[in-house]
């Protein structure tokens, strides 16, 4: 196994499946099965999920919501998703804990690095909800921050696309996918991997990123086995 401890970033939008809003139980089940198989291989797992399937703070701000309030609503959306994934994991026989960056016991325990590591050592999947707890920071930034804090070997960014391309493959049929690319080259080419705050956090703290298609069952195991799917972003 290539990695000992990972931080898995999941897209909120992916959880809505073919729906326009909310949670698709089929997608949740697929994710839970893949995570179950990954954990069975002995990997320690931390997870951060977006909230865009329920509420996105930036979109709310464009519709007249106060930006801080909008971002706080988005943080709560990530906790709803975290609880849904916890439930799906437990239905698949996986021990899972939700830690929240905002105090809201008994919904979840208040996050700390020590608590997260303690649970991982005990065989729990740890889902960290609530973003960074601060407005103006995305869940990508939360994933980067938590990945660095828990000393993950890699940040796995599970999305609906299968890697990083020279251009948007949906708009440019000539777009070419990278198997590997350096942080510097991503900057130079102005490619979209994560938002700049998250990306810089990873770069400055030596946390490699793998961008891959999470919606294809089995891909998570393939990434963990070191197969060259997706795109590896490294120093």
Structure notes:
With 235 residues, the chain is an alpha/beta fold. It has one domain: Acetylglutamate kinase-like (Carbamate kinase, 3-Layer(aba) Sandwich). Helix content is 38%, strand content 20%. The chain contains eight helices and eleven strands. The protein has helices at residues 25-40, 57-62, 67-91, 113-121, 139-149, 183-189, 196-204, 219-224, and strands at residues 5-10, 44-49, 96-100, 109-110, 125-129, 154-159, 164-165, 177-178, 180-182, 209-213, 231-234. The strands form two sheets. A nine-stranded mixed beta sheet has the order 4-3-5-2-1-6-10-11-9, with helices on both faces. Strands 7-8 form a two-stranded antiparallel ribbon. Helix 1 links the parallel strand 1 (5-10) and strand 2. The protein starts with a strand and ends with a strand. The model has no long low-confidence stretch (mean pLDDT 94).
General form: globular
Structural class: alpha/beta
- Give the DSSP E fraction (strand runs of 2 or more residues): 15-25%
CATH homologous superfamily (4th level) name: Acetylglutamate kinase-like
Helicity range: 25-40%
The count of strands amounts to: 11
Tell me the series of helices and strands, N- to C-terminal.
Answer: EHEHHEEHEHEEEEHHEHE
For this structure, the quaternary state is single chain
Side by side, the strands of the main sheet go 4-3-5-2-1-6-10-11-9
Taken together, the total number of domains comes to 1
Rg from Cα: 17 Å
Q: Kindly identify the CATH topology.
A: Carbamate kinase
What's the mean pLDDT score? 94
- Largest sheet, strands/sense/barrel: 9 strands, mixed
Unreliable sequence segments: none
């Amino acid at each position: 196994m290539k990695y000992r401890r990972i931080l898995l970033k999941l897209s909120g939008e992916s959880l809505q499946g073919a729906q326009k809003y909310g949670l698709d139980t089929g997608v949740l089940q697929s994710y839970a099965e893949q995570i179950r198989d990954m954990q069975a291989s002995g990997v320690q797992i931390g997870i951060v999920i977006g909230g865009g399937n329920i509420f996105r703070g930036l979109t709310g701000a464009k519709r007249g919501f106060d930006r801080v309030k909008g971002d706080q609503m988005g943080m709560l959306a990530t906790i709803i998703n975290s609880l849904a994934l916890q439930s799906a994991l437990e239905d698949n026989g996986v021990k899972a804990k939700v830690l929240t960056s905002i105090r809201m016991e008994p919904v979840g325990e208040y996050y700390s690095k020590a608590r997260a590591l303690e649970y991982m050592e005990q065989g729990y999947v740890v889902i960290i909800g609530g973003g960074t707890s601060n407005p103006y920071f995305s869940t990508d930034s939360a994933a980067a921050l938590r990945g660095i804090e828990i000393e993950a070997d890699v940040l796995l960014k599970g999305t609906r696309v299968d890697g990083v391309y020279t251009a948007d493959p949906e708009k440019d049929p000539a777009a070419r996918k990278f198997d590997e690319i350096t942080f510097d080259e991503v900057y130079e080419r102005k490619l979209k991997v994560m938002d700049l705050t998250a990306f810089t956090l990873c770069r400055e703290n030596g946390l490699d990123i793998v961008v891959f298609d999470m919606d294809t069952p089995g891909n998570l195991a393939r990434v963990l086995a070191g197969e060259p799917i997706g795109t590896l972003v490294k120093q």
